Amino acid sequence: MTPTDQTSAEDIVVIVNAENAIIEVAEGWTTAAKRQGADAQLAPEQVKGLDLADYIGSEVTCVYYEAALKLCRMKNTAICREYRCDSPTHKRFMQVILTPKAEGCVEMRHRLLHESPFKQRLDLRFADREPKLKGFHLRCSLCNSIKLENQSEWLAPESLLTDQPQKLAVIHGVCPNCEATHWRSFSLVKHSAHK
Ligand SMILES: [Zn+2]
To answer: What pLDDT shows up at residue 53?
Structure first.
């Protein structure tokens, strides 16, 4: 799918300042927060001023995004990459576009490209919220692949689905494959970049 400079009311838009603090959330943010049942916690007035790190949660993912924000500012051009943000019932293929704005601010625009249902439900829990669950599994924040404890391979979440839904406690990070994938810059939104 080719990225375009068209905007959609469903897009989840977050604007950070030069220090990576959230200064604005717009468009689909409130709808997405409602869908997660977190509309009070993620109300725009609650998240404005927060450091992006507080919002992302995973330290590894945060370092990855900080590097991308730096790249976006230094190149002064929009960059994008695709990622997965699965729900318990659906594979959700997303794209994020980072666009430089005035005074070091960057707009992060998350867009749902398409989604398809899982055959069964994969029940993932945050390891730090459910310490009783055994295991130390890793989940990639960008492609949602999972590395089970004591295994070396990262597997697509759909390959872990069984007839008996099993609860998996995961810690989020970035898999080697996603880490090696560069952010793509594209000319379509270059014109709108701040000069
Ligand atoms: Zn990955």
So the answer is: 87
